[in-house]
Design a protein that fits this description.
By secondary structure, the chain is an alpha/beta fold. It has five helices and five strands. α1 packs parallel to α3.
């Protein structure tokens, strides 16, 4: 088993947030430490006034069936999966300091699910021996 899982969350579309939740929760349930580095277009979705992620236009036709399937399975939202993973295991969510500065986001603007604002150097040092996934 890996020493940990480093997830770099860059995308701001709903189709990417689902695997973020699934992979984070699964790793936490297996006892694998997880570190999430939120940057790019994903950053606004980790603020207190976060918008709802949207699906890309190329998947428009699939979205109704996907949402119905998730409802039928009573699948939790990506947010609830990450939140539960943080309660279950060693999971930390960091927002990129460069993106936060560019967008004028301060720690007090962030959702409680976020542990801190850090730079890429901090994240890379902390996760140097982890498997890396870029979403």
């Amino acid at each position: 088993m890996t020493k940990g899982l480093a997830i770099i969350m860059f995308s701001g579309t709903a189709d990417k947030f689902i695997p973020l939740g699934v992979l984070t929760q699964t790793a936490a349930n297996l006892g694998v430490p997880v570190r999430i580095f939120v940057t790019g277009f994903a950053t606004p979705y980790f603020t207190k006034n976060k918008p709802q992620p949207r699906f890309p236009k190329e998947f428009e036709d699939m979205v109704p069936a996907l949402l119905q399937g998730m409802e039928k399975l009573k699948a939790p939202s990506w947010y609830d999966m990450v939140k539960e993973a943080k309660e279950t295991g060693d999971v930390k969510v960091y927002v990129c300091s460069l993106m936060a500065e560019m967008l004028g986001i301060k720690k007090e603007h962030l959702d409680p699910i976020v542990d801190d604002i850090v730079g890429a150097t901090f994240f890379m040092k902390e996760t140097a021996e982890y498997e890396v996934i870029f979403i």
